[in-house]
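Just wondering, does anyone understand these tokens?
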Amino acid sequence: MKRFLGLLVASLYLASCQTDTVGVDGVDIIAEPVIALPIGDINLTLDHLLVPDDSLIYDDNMDYKLVVAQDSVFSLSVDDLISLPAQSPATSSISMGTIGVNNVSMNTDISLGTVATDAGLTTINSAHGSNAPFPIMNESNIGTYGGGGFGTFTSASFSDGSMTLTLTNDWPTIVSMGVDLVDNTTSNTILSFSLSNAAANGGTASDTESLVGKSLPNNIGFKITSLSSPGTGLTSVAIDTADALTLDVSTADLAVYSAVTALTTQDISNDTQYVDLSTGGSEELRELMFNTASFDYEFTSTLAEDLELGIGFPGSNKNGVEVDTTITIPAGQTAMGAISLDNTILDLTTDPSQDHSKLPISVSATLVGSGNQVSIDSSDALDMTFEMTNLQFGHIKGFFGTQTITIDNGSVPLSVDFLENFDGSITFAEPSISMDITNSIGLPIELALDFDSYANGTASSLNGPDFVLPYPTVLGDTETGILTYDNTNSQITDVFTLPKDSIVYGGAVNVNHDTATFGTENFVTSTSAIAGDLLMELPFTITATGLAFGDTLADDLDLSGSVPENMEVENIKLFLSSTTTLPLEATVALKFYDDNWNEVHMESVDLLVSGVPNANGIVTAPSTSDVTIDLSGTALQSVLNAKAVVAEAAMDTYNGGSDAVKLRTDATIGISLGVQLEVIAEL
């Protein structure tokens, strides 16, 4: 616009430097009292003033539009929302603990003759093979009988179990006895039994004692600590010294914590452990799919037999099959390896104490008996170390918590060159800001956009609505959409009342801001992301008031010196005719200054009268105005003697800037200029 006004006003004073656009044609000088100079015509279109570039464009309908596009005004990746915690090696142990062993049995026979001999009962031995009364017996510490160990173990220390000693009495009289189970090597008592009133000729008596905390050696005996019988009185019975007292040992519920024994194949552990994948916030992970993952393990056994270890991931799905495997750890050795979880979906909701973010790992351990006697101890164990490595997830489902993520502040370039030389303002009546959203993150996110323009430190804020970004509801989909701020939902016209010093944006995105409405079912894939691209469109449907511009047209005027010495100028008339379809009204103030820059004269010229726009703001018929400036008397002398002239222009859009109008590429300005000098010639 500066170029336009410069052309216009400079032409008024025959001092135009725009010789490429002003043609001088047909000078006709009348040498009588009047000198008339038709200077020429200026014909301009808006293309001379507004040259399209990357931002200033016009559509097919020839309407100007200021367009500013900026990619990735904000963007979020999956890492901004959720990430798996770093995994450290985990350790655990399966202890041997108490070990179940088979029940054992043992029996020994003690003949009547042996007891009679050891107790010094000679009358019984003498009566062998005859009928005689059986004497009264009340003996103690008769002797120790039997010997040897149990066939299934050499020695054993018991954590559970019981032993029952049963007496079968083949003697012809009632018998009661006390029996100690002793270590034949050390004579130490292990258990004491009391067997009372076993009836004659096949009667029985029994006693059961606990084995908890007891140890059985490989050579045990039965020590008769007491033996009593009421005898048969005067009644004679058949005396046979071969008749025996039979002691039968039986056991129940045996479990040992230390033994040299032969083990049966048995389960020693069946447990489910959980790896905590919680992120430390309010996130709840419910399903995790790995593109790549490895479950690395190292198992070290101090057990005396081989161990079969079953490792599984309950609820997992790898190609339709739950992941599990069996690993054999040789006795006393270490086994290392890895279980691939590539392309595996894991269920993280199976922990009864927490229905999210827990990866279940089932561990079952089976001790494989070889049939050989081995030394075992309850402290024997399988030490386990495992680690999840090479984790690259394919997708995560769950609830990713509520959080606010700040959008980094940025600025929008908006350069309107022709406004830089003006005071006043232009208001765009139909501006819009659109956000082109591409989103593959499956959760609701609210955009709270801050968008402000500044003029002299004062902000004009957009105050637009908060939008929920379009988002996919099916895993793997991408949703797109456009969010629009315009003069129906914001104060955008205040933002784009130009000129402005700067335009900046910022704000925040609120993740899962309204779970009551949108729920808590979220998902992401490894490539999920959100991008928001900014597009500002400012169609030149505008109102403008007080656009003011000033420029010095000449600072070395010498109009009086240009008049021949034999002539005196009595009057100067400047003729101006304009025709325009531009919806602008322009007034130019021409100010003349003397050598000391004192204003000596001023003329105001209605340079342009706006064309009348229709209801759409488009001027369809040109407007014409004719202006004559008549300089005589004092004004004439002031102008003739002036040394500088300054043009100050003020412009409004149609109707004083109250009606919105459109600037179009086909708008034209035609100006015809002429000057007439009335002189007196001194002949």
The longest strand covers residues 244-262. The mean pLDDT is 82. The CA atoms of residues 295 and 388 lie 5 Å apart.
